[in-house]
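User: For my dataset I need records formatted as: sequence, then structure tokens, nothing else. Please produce one.
Assistant:
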Amino acid sequence: MNRIALIPAYQPDRTLETLAAELIQKGFSVVVVDDGSGPAYKSLFDHLNPRVILLRHSENRGKGAALKTGLNYIQEQFPPPYLVVTADADGQHQLPDILSVCAAGEASPDSLVLGSRRFDGKVPLKSRLGNTMTRLIYRLSSGVRVYDTQTGLRCFSHRLMDRMRSIEGDRYEYEMNVLMQAARSGIPIREVWIKTVYLNGNASSHFHPVRDSCRIFREILRFSASSLCSFLVDYSLFCLLSAATGLPAFSNIAARLVSAVVNFNLNRRLVFDAKGHTLPLARNYFLLAAFLLLCSTALLHGLTLSGLAPWIAKLLTESLLFTFSYLMQHHVIFRKERTA
């Protein structure tokens, strides 16, 4: 099986030249995408091994866009069967680890293989914390356990090319979207342990912690904002009705009915961008809402009987049900494969 190395590069250093030469020596076809590095880096790209296939963006478009430019070229120019391995240009991915990941990819051509770091040794704090956070959130939102969600060393065969090319995202969020789509579609994810390498404290990384993390977790952030908006509607009505009637259970049901309509429309249009017919989506959503309402009412009743003030009991109840609601809507009700 032909092995093709795809390397997106934005303002790289000479380690790219070394890695490309090593890969070619091992029989790889090497595709490098210059993601708008600018005139100052023209000489570096021009000195790459002549057998390197060099593609260029006139301006910086992001890692995801660079990967998809390379994938489009590979699908057009290389006949199957072949194996694609993506690697970073900053020296973090070394030849022995790339070979190990490729061997696992050849053994499992229907799987997505990740070169996962154990984060042992001297690791920059932002990298360690960043991966811990993304690992936890990915586990909660997908139900799949992956140790290194941020690795750029990934391998897959030509069988997954159409899916990889169609996944949304032009910057760092693309790689997280790949993992999310793999989980949703049942694509097996395999991990191969690789060496943890950070050169000069990872100074060459172009990852912006706040901006790019927001892109990566856009869906979850939108869901949180939608839930907060719906909660404010729910909570305000509950407090007003509870004060007026003195009936916490009745007030909870009435407030939840109104906020459920608000939440359904926000989640369908702004969070999950569901394209299915409204009636089946609404039916499933309101079945979930009814179940959550029963749980909420039971918990609220129990907490108020224990002596908690209704407004405190309401806060505790909604906090407990938040994660369950997100997982059900993400995986069942607004799942893209079902609503397309």
